[in-house]
């Protein structure tokens, strides 16, 4: 059995602020392209966000966000280097380890993790 180490990035965000979770979707294979990007939260078994370009050009990919996790707070930015999942108005309950899975037409599937720590807002009196 083979175990591949998955790179992990640590990110801190302040509750209420936007946060950007990186996900490398680049490929060096000639003629290759991204087919599907899936985001998972460590404590949930099913995807929480997806960008599906299997039936169309990736720039027109269908995006879906789990209503119980990010709902309409999340958006994917494939033009960034690396690509990013943006999440608006981050909440303390969003703190978790997230995994980004990228399926390519040719290259091997790539996984990366983001350990998101959310810091509560401090109010001064």
Automatic annotation (TrEMBL):
Task: Point out the signal peptide segment.
Answer: none
- InterPro entries linked to this entry: Ig-like_dom, Ig-like_dom_sf, Ig-like_fold, Ig_sub, Ig_V-set
Q: Where in this chain does the record put each Ig-like domain?
A: 16-117
One matching Pfam family, short form?
A: V-set
> Under what name is this protein listed?
Ig-like domain-containing protein
Identify the domain of life.
Eukaryota
Which species is listed as the source? Acanthoscelides obtectus (Bean weevil)
């Amino acid at each position: 059995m083979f175990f591949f180490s998955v790179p992990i990035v640590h990110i801190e965000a302040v509750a209420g602020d936007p946060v950007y979770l990186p996900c490398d979707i680049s490929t060096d294979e000639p003629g290759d392209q991204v087919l599907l990007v899936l985001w998972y939260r460590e404590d949930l078994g099913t995807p929480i966000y997806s960008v599906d370009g299997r039936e169309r050009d990736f720039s027109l990919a269908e995006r879906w966000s789990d209503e119980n996790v990010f709902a309409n707070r999340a958006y994917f930015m494939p033009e960034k280097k690396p690509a990013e999942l943006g999440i608006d108005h981050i909440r303390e309950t969003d703190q978790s380890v997230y995994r980004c899975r990228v399926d390519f037409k040719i290259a091997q599937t790539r996984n990366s993790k983001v350990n998101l720590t959310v810091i509560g807002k401090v109010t001064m009196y």
